[in-house]
Design brief:
The relative contact order is 0.21. By secondary structure, this protein is of the alpha/beta class.
């Protein structure tokens, strides 16, 4: 309930003040749930993606945020998952038709450039068989840059890419080669969208 109430408010705010544009909604899988993977340059990023995708997303959030009272409350009522030991919970949600979102860079890229990706998205995709939906976010690094206390109302755009399926033969063991190949595909997909503008 809280998630949808907050999402409605966020959609209105982003469309009104940030003139949010969304491209590629038709790429969202219709017959399966999925993993959202996006670039990360600002605290606004999860809100921008959440306002762009009309389905509930269980976001993986840095555990440090749970030390801040208001942030901790917000993440709890919106069913966010603290990082660190959350992969089992995320896998459980994915196998039960829920959508999970994460930022493979792990932290915000202060200069707006795409950093190297961690393996979590590829691991979840290989573990559960769910596709990864790559998303490219534009403008949030200018709207709310590092150390800024208040946002600037500049345009924000989210591009949703085609889903990426990381298929493998049935095996409980997921080796590093599979993870590297998988995350390479995801990073390249997001980079291509960012480069295209």
């Amino acid at each position: 309930m809280w998630y949808w109430a907050f999402r409605t408010a966020i959609v209105i705010i982003f469309r009104t003040f940030f003139r949010l544009r969304v491209e590629g909604k038709s790429n969202l899988p219709e017959k399966t749930n999925f993993i959202v993977a996006a670039n990360h340059a600002s605290f606004l990023d999860p809100f921008a993606v959440g306002a762009s995708i009309p389905k509930k997303i269980y976001w993986l959030a840095l555990r440090d945020f749970y030390k801040i009272f208001w942030a901790s409350w917000f993440m709890r009522v919106t069913d966010a998952l603290p990082t660190g030991g959350s992969s089992r919970k995320a896998a459980y949600l994915l196998t039960n038709s829920k959508n999970v979102g994460l930022f493979p860079e792990g932290v915000r890229a202060h200069d707006g450039r795409l950093r190297e990706f961690k393996k979590g998205a590829a691991f979840l995709a290989l573990k559960t068989g769910r596709p990864i939906v790559p998303c490219a976010i534009f403008g949030t690094e200018r709207a709310l840059p590092r150390k800024a206390k208040f946002p600037k109302f500049v345009p924000i755009k989210v591009k949703i890419g085609k889903p990426i399926y990381l298929l493998k033969e049935f095996d409980d063991r997921i080796d590093d080669l599979c993870l590297h190949e998988g995350i390479f595909k995801v990073r390249n997909a997001i980079k291509a969208m960012l480069d295209a503008g």
